[in-house]
Amino acid sequence: MSSTQARCAVILTSRAFSAIVRxxxxxxxxxxxxxxxxxxxxxxxxxxxxxxxxxxEDRDFQDQILDNMDIERERGITIKSQAVAIPYTAxxxxxxxxxxxxxxxxxxxxxxxxxxxxxxxxxxxLIDATQGVQAQTLSNMYLALEHNLExxxxxxxxxxxxxxxxxxxxxxTRDLGLDGEKALLVSARQGTGVDELFxxxxxxxxxxxxxxxxxxxxxxxxCHYDPYRGVVVHLRVFDGTLRCGMKIRFMNNNSEYEIExxxxxxxxxxxxxxxxxxxxxxxxxxxxxxxxVRVGDTVTSAENPCEKPLPGFRExxxxxxxxxxxxxxxxxxxxxxSLEKLKLNDASLVYEKDSSAALGFGFRCGxxxxxxxxxxxxxxxxxxxxxxxxxxxxxxxxxxLHSGEEVFVDNPTEYPDDGRVEGAEEPYIRASIISPxxxxxxxxxxxxxxxGVQTNMSYLDEKRVELLYDMPLAEVLFDFYDxxxxxxxxxxxxxxxxxxxxxxxxAKLDIxxxxxxxxxxxxxxxxxxxxNRARIVCERLRDEIPRQQxxxxxxxxxxxxxxxxxxxxALRKDVLAKCYGGDITRKRKLLEKQKEGKKRMRMxxxxxxxxxxxxxxxxxxxx
Length: 623
Hints:
Helices cover 29% and strands 32% of the residues. The protein is an alpha+beta fold.
């Protein structure tokens, strides 16, 4: 054999050896997520897995350890997804790296859930033994099936007195099409069954595929902002290898950066030299704001890019809109600074400057849903100590004008005059409700009241029924979920997807106070419901506005037509108290003088709306 042939043989042998080493490395990786309906114990199970992996000392442990915000712990929900690499020595003696990618549990964050799911090869489908299969259990399972994930059913809360394990197994088999008898039984609270769950993750979830020597192709499934180092990008590497000093490109916006540091998640950020195919980790590249990073984008090498990006990317668009104003107009600059800091951590928050004659300067904000709105409101109050007023939430309507032009309107103040409007369309949702049959009548009545049209009804078993409705998104904004939980005693579950726009009869409802329009209280409403809505708002304001020394009329109007009215009666000063007697004409003269004074006062008097009045208008339930 010649020296050239010998060198080639050595090179081939080293390449083959490197390929074997890479294959051995990926064989010891498992990427998985936990998907479940709200409150089925997802965060508690993640806690047990982390404890078992010895990532944190028992003395430093706290419940919901992956949830960083106080509001997440208080409400028992996950808002911001997290990832963590858990080392586990299996019964076969090998040490595996189990990458758990935690997902948000609420319908508002469905896109983030889909990106986290697409970063995995397997999913633990968690089902509460006391509640069984519910709406988001189904929708999350279908989402996992779309991404070809290996699904392992897990029955949680087996220690509860109300646990129905045989019934839950039957539901898994009948409703989900999985083998209920093979479902793993765990109690996340007590730690029962966690060892068997670890072994099932290793045995049932396939190792990642991908070529570390191929051009880099990685998926961004999340990011967060570090005030000292900039944006920390969370990603899953599908092909290629990521190293420090490497120049990368985001395929969505073609922006290029240089990797400063990278590593994996072990609750803290642990630095490594490289991330290769199959790995889940993070990188820092001097990115200034979260808005520069798009969840779902593909990262590739700037010098040797991959041919096409990973599928599934889309822009996250807000569906619910509301204006935010400071209670004290002098706090406007502080509110602006607070929103800028929030935006650093939450790229889905959209806002622009807004102003109101009643409330002064503020911001018009777009949110992913009502929960997202509530989270932003609480974070402004807790983290930034801001006292704010939110106007009534609205959706984005499509308005057709006689001129042939189409405009999108989410702010009542921007709604065109009725004379220019040819028609309007509003966004609809496909709502899925799973409930015990005992509450079927009341739920159907509620959905009809909310302009829902039933598209399907199927009995899952003798005790549970699934209802599918097409209904306007605007009807769900206010009190639908609360009333659904109330009439079903908490047993009904609700999930929805935004579908498309459908024609509607839209009207702008103005609220007049002392003859002046209060623009902050204006709403876009379904015209046949305008009278009831105006009456409720007027009644609420009558109870909240403090009495003055003159009558205050509160009116609801569509255009120039008044459709509802309430009156705040005047405080009456007893001007006759100083008359101890004498002619009646003297008393009449004093009363006439008082009457003229009240008339003048009404002409020039300003009515100040307390913050409680705005909050009262947002409540539509009768209390």
